[in-house]
## 1
Amino acid sequence: MINQGVPSRIFDRTRIFRGAMLSPGAIVTFVLVLFAVSLVVFLSFRINDGSLLGAGISVQNFATVISDPLYGLVVLRSLTIAGLVTLATVVTAYPVAYYLAFHAGQRRSLILFLVTLPFWTSYLLRVFAWKIVLAYNGVLNSALMLSGLSSEPSTLFLNTPSAVVLTLAHAYAPFAILPIFVALETIPRSLVEAAADLGARPFTTFRRVILPNSMPGVLSAAVVVFVPTVGDYVTPALIGGPTSTMIGSLVQAQFGKANDWPFGAALAVMVMLVILAVVLVVRQADRLFGSRT
């Protein structure tokens, strides 16, 4: 007679094991993500009365953010800088990922090591390194003066939006290279060979086969770069100066010097909504490319 209890006990053990493996991640997600976001949303509807969590319920914080043109200008500047960073990062990362996927050969491991090497150093150290390069008496100005191309140091390199774009594009380059590389690596080589057998030239093969099939990786890289750069405040503060103030700097100021947590939370919520809208647009574009390929 077959013991019906054995499969049931095995199923129960499997379910307990899965629950035990998933519970740490679920707890971390709830405590560090859902609870934190819920607290920020709750704070955004409070009134600043000097206490930690504010008092009362009001939409005045959101009304101020929407009605004051200063915040609209800063949000627009943040989106513009983040968009330029994303464009620059993806455009420069794609050739590296393409070389890794199709031409690196035995050098692939070494190049991947070099790509991930910036992760070994602090983000803050990389920002300070660019500040040393772009400063008034920095490496770039010194090199221009030694080469005779400039007679005096220039103030055009540091404390500009271009410096912020350059620094952020360098800092987030690995985040763009790796998703694009994975997408290119998963393209069946038989498709490339079939295109060549049908007489397609290399550029035509790239345009009709490789690029469309790698677009999910490109869009993923764009999201991974765009989302953190919108709210970045360290790089604009150290590299950009007053003319490059982004929304992250305003949020940090409200939670810091201004000590107005409800208004800072409202700014953060508005940024999250803008990022959510961008992510939904990218997701729709991903579906469009997926249906075409």
Note: The chain has two domains: 1-44, 60-292.
## 2
Amino acid sequence: MRWLLTFVLGVLVGAGGLFVWLRQMPHAPTAPAVAVNTGSLPAPAAPGPGLDGKLPPAPQVMPDLTELDLPLRPGGTDAPATAAAPASASASTSAPAPAAAQGKLMVPVEGMPLAKITDTFDQPRGTERHHEALDIMAPKGTKVIATADGKIVKLFTSKPGGLTVYQFDPTEKYAYYYAHLDRYADGLKEGMDVKRGDLIGYVGSSGNADPNAPHLHFAVFELTPEKQWWKGTPVDPYPLLQP
């Protein structure tokens, strides 16, 4: 019996020593758990009202360029839309007048001396662009004549320009544009060749022109390689007119 008690006592003493030894062993620190967000990022919040209580305006889209006077450009609102940069208020988008063409164009209103014409090409039209044409004031019914040889490529009616004529020069590098006509010359047709000084129409106030101020809106523009009658780079006609 004594040997059994001695054996049990030895086992208990050995177990206590093992427990003390395990308590004194160094332990590696446990890394703290990190929460991982597996969800998707939230969508950006819609812009709220400003200090004045109004929502910020939506991005503006430039309208299609149109034709004349208010402010307008060859083509008209009914013509195919063109992608062209608007002119700034301080600089014109016109191309320099070709030296070879200077003094080669006839004043397109019969009996109108150059001295009575004002160069309105660079006059501002709002804050976005310039006039890019000449307004030649004349009584209603005054004859409008071809400024140079060429071909009638388009007879076009638009809300801003009224009755208009597009003429290409013989090289099809430049187009001549006549607008606000009262009526066309009898027999005028698209595809017709005309000579310098030929009758093509009559001064009027069609389109957006003031009925009390009939005039011819005359523009010149350099055509693109596609030769589209409604599209080109404006050229100041005034230096090209023959005195």
Note: The first strand starts at residue 124 and ends at 125.
